Amino acid sequence: MRSVEELDSSISIKDTGYFNHSAFPDLILKWPNRPERPLYVRRTYEELEAGHDVARLANSSPVFLAVGRSNLGNRQVTQSRLGVDDVPNRQVLVTNAATIDLFNEDAGVEGGSPLTGAVAANLLPSGKGLLDEERAESVLRPDADILLELGEVLTPAALQSLSTVVGVVSAAKGGELPATLESLEQFSPEEVRELLPWLLRADGITDSAEFWDFIARRVNLKHIEALSEDLADLDLTPLCSRGWDNWQSQRAGLGVRFVDPDRDSPYEQWVMRGKLLTYEVGDASFRFSTYGQAIKERNSVSSATWELVEPTLTDASLLNVVLRGIVRRIRVGAEESGDIREDTRSILQSVKDRYYVDEVTLRYGLASEARSIRLDLGNQIAYNDGNASLRDMVRVLARTGAYRSPVDVPGLGAQEGLAE
Q1: DSSP assignment, residue 305?
Q2: CB of 382 closer than 8 Å to CB of 393
Q3: pTM of the entire structure?
Q4: pLDDT value at position 418?
């Protein structure tokens, strides 16, 4: 059943142990977010016809797979003859191994259209009717109206998903984005898996800001992390430069950029480093993660003084600060005040000890849309305390995290206005 697994990477297959039993499925096909389907293996279409299997088993939304070649010509293998037409309100898929192989071969073509992969990923969970080699070849023609060809063998929900992929592929090549896609809030995981690697790898993809804005608003950082292996060694800048204002991470870390001496690297670029989305700017590297343990504390001690940190806080409200002295540790917070800068200055002027700044919590934007970030200066890790975007995290790390030598990050812009 390797060909079945190759057809859809999200599938898991359970062997029932009832091989070639007429009443029990040979395999159970399972997906993360779709109903499971039983798969019955038959030697040929003739065996399927002789056993009246479609009529007997239609209520379980089965898949019937003929592994051998039929003695009948393709024109003689019809939905009517196999009994598919007798169960019009049931989701029954009849296909054969040669048809599955055709889709696997086309999906494996380097640089090929994501449409083939999207179709392949929908065949088993959403397929219905008779899908034979003749219909498969019609679908895989370069000039095929793929949605029209698939209308008889996929459920309406699957066709809707495919229409999204069709529209995006057309727009990526310079066409207009269909108006029907404007109401789409987010791509499905399957759509993301088929579209993103292709959009970032293929030649001739539009550089339209409107197009990439549309894509970036319908994916998130978890989608990117799930595709880390597929996106390795790709320049993610067209996507991420449009998405960093909306995407959120749980943590972000500041480090030193690794520069390959054998390659010319641009001043700034977005890439995958391991499983983490990484924004590289000059000599700095900003890493992001939606799960905390991917960016860990190193138990480093901050050497930041208030005199060095305070000038970097000009475009944010200071909500909390943790000061560490030789004798004591002081936490300054504000329950009602919008900014504790003056309180911090007063405390430092009234004590004789030398204090270092271990942690600050900053708030950006107006109170009605405030975004909060807690910054550990020793470990140079920013924690999202509420609604902060990747751009906000970069801002805090580039200015306050790198307080000795702030990172010049293009696109951070001027002051946004302090939180009230």
Answers
A1: B
A2: yes
A3: 0.82
A4: 40
